Amino acid sequence: MFSFGTVFTFALLLIPPTEAVDSSYVAAVYEHNLILNPDPRVPLSRLEALQHLQKNLDIFEVQAARAAQQGAQIIVFPEDGLHGFNFSRTSISAYLETVPDPEQESWNPCLEPLRHNNTEVLQQLSCMARRNNLYLVANMADLQPCSVSAAPSSCPPDGRWQFNTNVVFRSDGLLVARYHKYNLYFEAAFDAPPEPEIVTFDTPFAGKFGLITCFDILFQEPTVILVEKGVRQIIFPAAWMNQLPLLDIIQFQRAFSLGANVTLLAANIRNDQLIMTGSGIYTPFSATYHHAQKGDPEEGRLLVARVPVLDPEWLGHNAASSEAAAVDESPGYCYSDTCLDSPASTAPVFVSSMMYDPFTFALLNATDGEMRVCNGTFCCYLQYRWVEETGRSELYALGAFDGTHTVNGRYAVQVCALVRCAGSDASSCGQEVDEAESKLDFMLEGKFASRHVYPSVLSSGMVLEQPERVEAAADGRVSLKHSSVMGGLVTACLYGRMYHLDTA
């Protein structure tokens, strides 16, 4: 049973004339409550694997038809949505199919099913796209033979690559793109390709799309490379385990869309045990998204939305800081380039773990004020004002971190975050929270060593808010201003990625 449930939609109404939308298209993403193999470590026969795959393919078929009925021209299914996860290199063998390179071979599996052996999944996906007359993106397990004896060779000892793979089918069933995930996340069944693949495909209704998968979104290759090449529409299948306060998937999907100024079509798995939920259709101007709440039925969710085609010439222009948005000049607030140099309170600081990183925090102890917190030489500045007294019993803190995150991945970050603490004690600051009552007007600012900064505002009940204004200066200063918060503030964040400092 697939109910519509609660779907959130918001839009930034003020778009400058220079960013007028010439055309639009209808996109769909499906958050899939996948049917798992109950014992993924035990190898299966090909027939047994196909029987399992068919259960998820049948659900995909229903959702593709529903999307087409609502006018969708493209649908995205999540990572691992057909086979599941937690396989070993050996136990996934029966699920593997060899996906031909569309750059080297033109093949429509639906019309030519006998050209390649053991391609039942490719054939069904191709026919699914063809029957419903839409572009279809799915994720599957790919086998590519390689030579161990060739020198130099990075071929695995068993003579084959096993890739976590996105496949794209045109509306007539033609296979048009294949992308092998580069940044793996504890995936013993799969290999990373020897080099990152920069993969795009063209459509007649919206131009060019780029392909990434899940953990890729946190890294320069291939994600930022695609954006720097002018790709403004990104496909993002994921099997993402959420982690508050900073990396719930809808939080970072929205932040990436705003910070990179791109459309993101994001489909996640729904699995409550693994804390997986959160899918959406994001543009710099709007968001249609779903995030399951505690107690919701564990079921799939289809999202369909009309979105603007993004012209490549808009690259590098941050829609969230449009000239049409008014600057708040009310007393006590600074929205100039000199905020970090303004006098600020010297509140006592303390160190507390957030996202497994040692953040430097200071508590918000007044009804309104200004404060600065530094972690080493990296400083974050906050101006704030409580707008309602009802939530003053909740504890909030401003946190700063500058360093390399090393737990469940290794990457360099600079982060400024205003967070609601989990309890009434300072030691609870940085812990996971998803509910709040306090409403604040605020301006958060930092001076970053990278231009890749991703802004987000998350309010109570996993509701995203469109930042009122985001500004970036040439010297690395980025500010996020927000007022009239709709719900209690959970987290406001400027998440800077220092790609140039990443180490293997």
TrEMBL record:
It is an enzyme of class 3 (hydrolase). The active site is at 79 (proton acceptor), 181 (proton donor), 214 (nucleophile). Its EC number is 3.5.1.12. The keyword Ribonucleoprotein does not apply. Keywords: Glycoprotein, Hydrolase, Signal. CDD domains: biotinidase_like (cd07567). The keyword Glycoprotein applies. It catalyses: biocytin + H2O = biotin + L-lysine. Gene3D superfamilies: Carbon-nitrogen hydrolase. It comes from the Eukaryota. Residues 30-309 form the CN hydrolase domain. Residues 1-20 form the signal peptide. GO terms for molecular function: biotinidase activity. Belongs to the carbon-nitrogen hydrolase superfamily. BTD/VNN family. Catalytic release of biotin from biocytin, the product of biotin-dependent carboxylases degradation. This is Biotinidase.
